[in-house]
Write a structure and sequence with these properties.
The chain is mainly β. The chain has no helices and 11 strands. It has strands at 2-7, 10-13, 18-26, 33-39, 46-51, 58-60, 68-73, 78-83, 92-99, 114-115, 119-124. Strands 2, 4, 5, 6, 9, 10 and 11 form a 7-stranded mixed beta sheet that branches. A 4-stranded antiparallel beta sheet has the order 1-3-8-7, with no helix packed on it. The chain starts with a strand and ends with a strand.
């Protein structure tokens, strides 16, 4: 079993930056793939970014590419999402996710077994 806890959400002005953290506990050796998703009010949960175990392979949605950066520190059992040049449309609850591996890409909800509780990000103009 893996437990994930997000932190770092908050209120930020458009154009600003925010860094989200995802702390993993429990059977952390099962945290092979890590990803971030977000869900805005009235919308479906959507993929944001993913990273492999060694941190040398990343993939981003087109909407955040060039602005967001996913990373991880396995010694701390923690993943990160650095968000720059934030836009009002980035406003959403952001969820951290993890999986034991086995899929080729990790861009869909069913690619992940473990999920955090989410952290709110509000971007105002």
């Amino acid at each position: 079993q893996v437990h994930l806890v997000e932190s770092g959400g908050g209120l930020v002005q458009a154009g600003g930056s925010l860094r989200l953290s995802c702390a993993a506990s429990g059977r952390t050796f099962n945290v092979v793939r890590m990803g971030w998703f977000r869900q805005a009010p009235g919308k479906e949960r959507e993929f944001v970014a993913t990273i492999n175990l060694n941190g040398d392979v990343t993939y981003y949605s087109d909407s955040v590419k060039g602005r967001f950066a996913i990373s991880r520190d396995n010694a701390k059992n923690t993943g990160y999402l650095q968000m720059n040049s934030l836009k009002p449309e980035d406003t959403a609850v952001y969820y951290c996710a993890a999986d034991r591996g086995g899929s080729y890409h990790y861009t869909r909800e069913y690619d992940y077994e473990y999920w955090g509780q989410g952290t709110q990000v509000v971007v105002f103009s």
